[in-house]
Write a structure and sequence with these properties.
Layout (H helix, E strand, L loop, with lengths): L6 H10 L5 H22 L1 H4 L12 H6 L1 H4 L6 H14 L10 E4 L9 E4 L1 H15 L8 E7 L4 H4 L6 E7 L4 H11 L3 E5 H12 L9 E5 L5 H10 L6 E6 L2 E6 L5 E3 L4 E7 L4 E8 L10 E2 L2 E5 L12 E8 L4 E4 L5 E4 L1 H9 L7 E7 L2 E6 L4 H18 L5 E6 L11 E3 L2
InterPro entries: ANL_N_sf (IPR042099), CapK_Type1_Caps_Biosynth (IPR053158), CHP02304_F390_synth-rel (IPR012685)
Protein name: Adenylate-forming enzyme
Amino acid sequence: MNKLKMVLPFIQARWFRRFSSRQALARYQQKALEKQYAYMRTHSPYYRQLPKDESFPFMDKQFMMTHFDELNTQGIKKEEALAFALASEKTREFNQDYQGLSIGLSSGTSGHRGIFITTEAEQALWAGTVLGKMLPKGNLLGHKLAFFLRADNQLYQSINSPVIELAYFDTYHPLAEHVARLNKYQPTILIAPASMLVALAQQIEEKNLALHVQQVISVAEVLEETDRDYLAAMFDLPMIHQIYQCTEGFLGCTCSHGNLHLNEDIVYIEKEFIDERRFYPIVTDFKRTSQPIIRYRLNDILVAANEPCPCGSVFQRIEKIEGRADDIFLFEGKNETTVSVFPDFIRRCLLFVPDIRTYQVTQHSPRLVEIAVDQLTEQQKQQIQEEFQNLAEDLKFTCPQLTFSVYEWNPRIKLKRVARNF
């Protein structure tokens, strides 16, 4: 029965949920929002006690965890859900439910772990929507998906059906084990964090792995432009797709032209602009009822693309996911001021230097930045120094001391190529 419930959202996402204009989309969203608000005022203890004339407040992860018991509509207690999710993490067994619900933990990239819950109906809705949007055009049946992630969840396993097979690959396991299993499994679609995809591509380059996939989808991490080009070459594909998915919802995915769009048919996004095109998304998921995601402020930095997409979709096109707010570097400016530098400017200091692909830049203090690269020549170090000095002069901050180290990839941790740790 749960598999049958996937059919309608699959059909809607793939063929029928189309909008002729932004105005038509806005009318659809308004009706969906009104329905969701009415439901929450009836079924969520937290929203039930709000005065009817009071607007719904903004939330974030801390708010969600503080009010978890009152927010959710399933009567689930935070401590019980957390204990269940942690037990699954420790045993690496993710096939059990809790009172008919799927419960998982966020990866805690921003420093705070969160709990997410989904009902069986929501799992079917999610699976049908993802498959409807992401399966290759004109080729629906018989796909074998290889799915890499830190933790499995019944939400992801809901994709399994008589016509589509999903195999979970635990990123805690050794890379050699994955290579052997992939050579035997031979998936048609490969889904993994960008850093894992790069590691697998390197195995292809070294002739240890032979795959003939129809589609590669990057998830969970920022997909760098250089990594995207390298992956396309190694997997012999015209483009690398992306899914913008987090515990707050299925927020975006690439279209047939490889451009990332927000999924505005299932989420409403308010934009908190940082500059002319960068913004923080404030998410309302109007398809999810067990755990309200209403006016949820993410600290992801999205860059809006203003030109229309050749695919014809009216959904907001995103040029890139630049990083998180807590990855904006902070340097010393003139007269004791602080200069904020977006992650993209830091990336460029490495991208302008030839023959650097895998790296990580970590700011330890306003005066100290660590550059981790696989192999680095003295000439490359000098070029990086010059790029940082040029950036400092352009943005008027004091250039920090740069230290260099060897890059070591840890597949158990979500990779952030640009990170600030103070």
